[in-house]
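Morning, I've got a small favour to ask if you have a moment. I owe you a coffee for this, so here goes:

…
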Amino acid sequence: MMGLPMRQKKILKKLMALDGWVKGRKLAEEMEVTPRTIRTDIAAINVWLKSVSCYIESSRQEGYRLRGERLGELESLLWDGTDIPLTPQERMRILGIRLLQADEENPEDVDELEEEMFVSRTTLESGIFKIKAMLESRTTPMYIKRTGRKIWTSGEEETRRFLLKELVVDRTDPDYLMIENYNDYFGTNVPEKMMNCVLKSLTDKEISMTAEDILHLVIYLSIKLSRIHMGYEFQNKTKDLMAPEDINWALSETIAEKVRIEFSTVFNEEELVDLAVQLSLFRLIGNESEARPIPKPEQSHYEYVVNELLKDIKNKFHLDLTDDQELKDGLVTHIRYTLKRINMEPESTNPVLMLLKTEYPFVFDMSLFLYERFYDVFGVRLNENELGYVATYLGSAVERLERKKSPKDFTIAVVTGMNYGTSRLMTTRMKAIYGDNCNIEGPFSIYAVHEIEKLKPTFVITTESKQVLKNIHVPKIQISPLLNEKDQREINKWLQHMRKEMMYDQLPKSIKDYFHEELFFYHMRTETPGEVIKAMSESLIKLGFAERDFAVKTMEREQVASTIFGNKIAMPHPIEACAKKTVISVGILDRPIPWGSGEAQLIFMLAVKKEDMKYLNSFFDLTVRLVDDEGLVKRLLDSKNLAQFKDRLPIL
């Protein structure tokens, strides 16, 4: 996209991916700029879009959306590699790559860097200083050297390659898995050809890897190829303790042979050893007898940690995953991989962390039980990114258990006042989509109240207003006559809710009964999460609802993983149960404050007795329902008292 800066390119990608409007405020939050800057960017993008007869439509009420008759032509223009880094994070990343690619024989020129990156000398020098501090703080440090206008880095080749790989792979880009994005770093078609070498090698060895791991391997190999061509081969690496039958060594030899054929480049034994070590950091999936060497005695430690985690979950949450062998095998393999990676790599980021915490908070909280177990056995403190990966395994196991326990006799009654043809079409679509999991009955007339109640449906799907069906006393979902994607999402939510009722212990009373007048705080003036937690905890302790260490354990939970949910909602709670009474304290701040990776203004402080931990999922459902409803959260923030607040809460 010629001349279009990276942030504007990301804005355009975002609008292309959406089928509808997006608020300017949301774009500003994602791009970490002000709404005014977004307006300026939109104006600039519109000038560029004239060349393809497209434009971004603006609405004071709705926000922005992409329009035009030639939208299909935009996709090919997104990958021409002429990005201009705008944000501080982008500048730091690009500057780091440029400096790591430079050495004494091929240095960078600071004047040229200043011009190419569109920054002042002060900004450039500030970036260089920060990168210098980061490089020198590593266990195996790199150093920035300067002579006049020339600047370069020096240090171990292994460290240089690893850091280059971490910087080149930009996980903040929603399209970072697109291999075409990396042509600028290595030359046109080099990443694609390297990808073919890797995929063919995996096929030959009957091994599979995750897409993200494949990308990291391809980029690392592309860096290896580039450095070898520049004359920087590894020397003096030995094949210690690496048996010929070791799958990492065997796979490295297979890849090296395909690289030789494709690029006319031979890896010496030292480069082969390095490749085998890198492969040991990835999760190789295949025939276990071939994909992994015979387990070492330490395997029992991994199994112990996994078994204790599942016991904790069973005892605390009444959720039995102990018979899920797929979960156990996956976690054991992941823990082995994690320990290897932590010993060689700096802290990693988890691209799905916020989604996990927002959409599956209960599952994420279950993963916290691994935190102490892991430290006790291995002496390693896991961060929230690592715990997030554990949560994905637990989430898959919960999904398997839900499917196993889901009844085939959910009954959905289709009720409509539409004409016969439309009614039949809607019912037929319902049966096609949901017939394998539920009984679909109907269509019924809106007047067939007695017949519908006799059926005892789980819930009703209707094209009419809920008021019209007020005499039918079961949950109702209003949909469009053609059952669009939005309707299906709403139905899926209800089905998921019904499955959860079968899976988890349900609250013995309405969630609204857990709120207390003395624990409703309106217009709180605080600056930090710590101040909020301290103030709200003191009230819980004073009223006799919590132990004296409640605030300490809540802050410990925040340090392990922030309890921000998005949409200005946070739900702080202790890392372990220490409440005398199960209650929810509400804090409405006078303005949003920074909280973890976002901002919070509506605070639900959760105090749960040990024996009530089995209900934790029901409490998290509250935030899951609110996180996507900006209007409802705004109304809750405007509540002046608890009665008004509870009236505005959704019925869960």
User: Anything to note?
Assistant: The longest strand covers residues 583-595.
